[in-house]
């Protein structure tokens, strides 16, 4: 130290935030928000609809897809499931995620509990609530990130091409499909193979939220005929003499027509969502997951056959008026009771160790042990 005044160097702590990445991330989120939440993709009655508004309008007005708002929530739940299994030996605090999920579900229920006029405001808030859940899961997702994979840029480019043609052709379904492809490409490009392994199925699960109501006419009417034919055969087996004319079921006591809502097309869409999530969680072999997922169609048919047959049985005992009014309103629960219970049974059978059971059953019994006294032992 000299006899002069010493000057101490003051060092400011370096920031741990990479502002370049934060800025690029905000720009990317802004572009995605504009592309899918602001950009017009369809015009209905002089009303310009963005991709998000078009999607939600189908969820609200097409009963086949009334379960649509639950699909992003289930997808985030599957992300949590993967993270919790990955960190099974580690106690991680998931309370922020459960709080965000609870708030989101509560907000989505506001229009049903209070007033439908609040739907517009709820829809504007819902994307930010989903982003809140992603933020709550980010600490676990960040640990799975590997080196960026350049192949993700190819997937992102494909998504951009699909988006361009979807907007130009006014095809909202293609635009929604491009959003799912874009999420997959970003996960691979930014998070590498580790992130895509974690997020691949939850992102692909979002494909189920795309409305395919244009299939109702092609699939719905054949299902109506199948319901009428199968229910008529089942009722005749029970001793109730019935005949079928087209989609109508006739007897001496009642006559019903299997309408489009009773064809099973509504329950098919919901059961497809449930079986996909249930198969992913309960099955660990890929072919078993596909078997359980593809069982959604026969499960929907089975559940609706049970419903139509039960309506006819109630009409046979209590009259057509009670069956077609009071009972018909609540008979929809039969579809899911029969279908979901059968789905659980199929899942248990797929996981049952048949091979080990039969190996133990065919194994010869062990030789009997001699419990008599030994020759060199004392005799009593």
Proportion of residues in β-strands: under 5%
Mean pLDDT: 83
Number of domains: 2
- Low-confidence spans: pLDDT under 50, at least 5 residues? 1-15
Number of helices: 15
How many beta strands in the DSSP annotation? 5
Radius of gyration from the alpha-carbon trace, in angstroms: 29 Å
Structural class: mainly alpha
Major sheet strand order: 3-4-5
Using brief descriptors, characterize the structure shown.
disordered N terminus, 2 domains, mainly alpha, three-stranded antiparallel β-sheet, 380 residues, globular
Summarize the structure.
This protein has 380 residues and is mainly alpha-helical. Helix content is 67%, strand content 5%.
Report on the structure:
The chain contains 15 helices and 5 strands. It is mainly alpha-helical and 380 residues long. The chain has 2 domains: 22-211, no CATH class; 216-361, no CATH class. The strands form 2 sheets. A 3-stranded antiparallel sheet has the order 3-4-5, with helices on one face. Helix 7 (151-168) packs antiparallel against helix 8, helix 9 (216-237) packs across helix 12 and helix 10 (265-282) packs antiparallel against helix 11. Mean pLDDT is 83; it is low at 1-15.
């Amino acid at each position: 130290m000299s006899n002069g005044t010493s000057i101490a160097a003051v060092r400011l702590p370096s920031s741990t935030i990479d502002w370049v990445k934060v800025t690029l991330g905000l720009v990317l989120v802004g572009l995605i928000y504009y592309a899918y939440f602001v950009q017009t993709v369809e015009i209905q009655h002089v009303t310009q609809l963005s991709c998000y508004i078009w999607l939600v309008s189908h969820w609200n007005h097409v009963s086949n897809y009334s379960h649509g708002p639950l699909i992003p929530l289930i997808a985030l739940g599957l992300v949590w499931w993967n993270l919790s299994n990955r960190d099974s030996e580690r106690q991680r605090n998931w309370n922020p995620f459960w709080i965000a999920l609870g708030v989101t579900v509560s907000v989505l229920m506001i229009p049903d509990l209070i007033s439908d006029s609040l739907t517009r405001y709820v829809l504007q808030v819902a994307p930010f609530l989903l982003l809140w859940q992603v933020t709550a899961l980010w600490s676990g997702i960040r640990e799975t990130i590997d080196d960026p994979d350049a192949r993700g840029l190819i997937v992102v480019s494909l998504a951009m091409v699909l988006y361009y043609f979807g907007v130009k052709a006014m095809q909202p379904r293609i635009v929604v499909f491009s959003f799912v492809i874009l999420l997959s490409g970003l996960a691979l490009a930014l998070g590498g193979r580790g992130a895509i392994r974690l997020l691949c199925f939850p992102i692909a699960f979002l494909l189920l939220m795309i409305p395919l109501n244009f299939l109702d006419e092609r699939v719905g009417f054949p299902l109506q005929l199948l319901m009428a034919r199968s229910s008529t055969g089942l009722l005749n087996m029970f001793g109730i003499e019935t005949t079928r004319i087209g989609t109508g079921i006739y007897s001496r006591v009642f006559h019903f027509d299997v309408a489009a809502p009773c064809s099973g097309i509504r329950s098919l869409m919901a059961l497809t969502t449930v079986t996909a999530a249930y198969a992913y969680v309960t099955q660990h072999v890929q072919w078993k997951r596909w078997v359980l997922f593809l069982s959604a169609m026969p499960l929907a048919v089975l559940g609706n056959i049970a419903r139509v047959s039960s309506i006819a049985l109630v009409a046979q005992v209590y009259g057509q008026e009670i069956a077609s009014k009071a009972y018909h309103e609540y008979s929809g629960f039969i579809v899911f009771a029969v279908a979901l219970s059968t789905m659980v049974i199929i899942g248990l059978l797929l996981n049952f160790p048949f091979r080990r059971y039969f190996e133990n059953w065919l194994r010869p019994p062990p030789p009997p042990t001699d419990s008599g006294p030994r020759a060199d032992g004392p005799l009593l």
